[in-house]
Amino acid sequence: MGLLGLQIVNGITIGMIYGLAALGFTMVFKALGYLNFSHSNTITIGAFVIYTVVISLNIPFLVAMPVVILFMLFYGFVLEKVLFKRFRNASALTFMLVSISLSTVVSNVCLLVFGPQPRALTNVFPSIRLNLGGVSVPFNNVCIFVIAVVFLIVLQLFFSKTKFGLSLRLASEDPSTASLMGIKVFNTRAATFAITAALGGIAGMLVSPLYSVTIELGSSLALKTFISAVVGGLGNFVGAVVGGILVGLTETLAATYIASAYKDMIVYVAGIVVLAFFPYGIFRRVKTKH
Amino acid sequence: MSVIKKYRKQIAMVVLLALVAYLSFNSYFVFVGINALINAIAVMGIVIISGYARQLHLGQSAFLGIGAYTSAILMTKAGLNFWLTIPVAMVIAGVFGWVLSIPTLKLKGGSYLALVTQTFGEIIYVLLLNMEWLTNGPFGISGIKAPSIGPLDFTGLQPYFFLCLAILALVYFALRRIVRVKFGRFFISIRESEEAAQSIGINTRKYKMVAFVIATSVAGLAGVLYGPFIGYLSPEQFRWQPSLTLVSMAIVGGLSSLEGGIVGAVILTFLPELLRSTDQLRMILYGVIVILTLAFLPDGIVSLFGKKPGEIKKMLAAQWDMLSDKTLRKKKKKVKLAGKAK
Lengths: 290, 342
Hints:
The complex is a heterodimer of chains A (290) and B (342). Chain A has 290 residues and is mostly helical. Chain A has one domain (2-277): ABC transporter involved in vitamin B12 uptake, BtuC, CATH 1.10.3470. Chain A contains 11 helices and 2 strands; from the N terminus they run ααααββααααααα. In chain A, strands 1-2 form a two-stranded antiparallel ribbon. In chain A, a hairpin with a 2-residue loop joins strand 1 (129-132) and strand 2 (135-138). Chain B has a domain at 2-239. A two-stranded antiparallel sheet of chain B has the order 1-4. A two-stranded antiparallel ribbon of chain B has the order 2-3. In chain B, helix 3 packs parallel to helix 8 (157-180). Chain B is 75% helix and 2% strand. Chain B has 16 helices and 4 strands. Classes of the chains: A mainly alpha (290), B mainly alpha (342). Chains A and B meet through helix 4, helix 9 and helix 11 of A and helix 6, helix 12 and helix 14 of B.
């Protein structure tokens, strides 16, 4: 019972990280109809930047987070203004390849800037264990979970209460109506990219205490993020987070109870099987424009 | 003579490639050249599935892996002849392709297809890595010998280059035949509109499956050639990054024709080697060049062929206007002028 409980907590923790990253992926898809394969880079960059800020500048983790988020917002904004803006009329395939090539460029720039050696961000949170209903849970995981939930609540408030958030949602639902109502759709696109980059960066920050920080960090999480977004239904925000948690749970439970070498494969097969029965994700019963 | 006239473009291409290889007896260029030819065979498979049938396929290198491993295992463990492993590898890769096509038949959006094919590639990677009794796991398979037939021995780089060139030509003509007959027409009808194709009685499911099987078995063939060339196989060589490189080759060259696939494969295989002097900036420049090609030539490099310099200039200028927001600005100016006229 203790092991199962612990694994469920671990699964939900890593799942929240997948969910946050998948949220960014799905937001771009909803707003533009394109798959942004360079999204996984934001995870790597987020992890490296927080490592640099925490270790070299010796700033506490929680204080460093806003710095990293600002940096990621800027990164996403610049990327959209410099590159993605120019491909707004491109076919989905071309955009996908542009983002793949961009991913090559960005990860090699990261390699140049940060170097190939792996780093570890340890002792971010006190290494004590909490006793939650008979299950001894690492404090680390609880912190990550709480931070992820806080960000999700902030995001939800942003999208439902602020005027800018509402205009972003309208612009992604229906750009032409939005532009008729005085929303500058080009600016909302830039904001979408900025926010998605920030979400990827948050996922990277949260994953950095769990995994070692390497250049491949983003690409190792990329496919699972992708599956989370697709299982939840591309363009479905709640679905992305729930999909992420499902992927995280499947992964940890499969690693514990079936075979740890095949845990990735089990997640992938599960993803494909779910798609074969629910071609539009588990939350979308009605066929919409996609 | 009419045959020569009809195929003069293709013959010119083959002669050109052979000439390049012959003149540059530099073994390094021949090495890269073999790589380019093997990539070209796999990319032609992508052209069939993604160009003709418009089904996105991001897992092609996994099928290369299946072909390479099948052939290598049969040669090293069962002692089978190289030539006999070719059909076996193609059939096995094709069977895996058929399995992959089953869950994709329902999926209409390219995005979902992208996920399934990419994930399938990763599944194959995990299998290759963990089925140690068969594939040697992370240690890989080494000691794959080059083939020979009668007095012809293909050990050495130059002979192997010509073997690959011959097989490339064979695959090219076979695939060309396939896309010119009924099959190819059906694939194109699926690309243009699946519903319309169904309404005139085309079994689109069946032909999507056929397209997948053709594309993947071609990749299996490319994989068979890959084994003796490198001499060592490990699962890392067949992950999703090389798959994405293969797809970018297809797009950069031009998805609409088999020639485009070959051109893209040759150019993008040689590009990183030409940039080798820039050392660490190599992959960055490579990515930038691919992005620029996609920006200016969305239909691939093939769209430049057979056009006069003036036309090309016009095309690039139009594309530049689109990229740099000029079309928007022009419209605004027009609106202003119209306002003044009133």
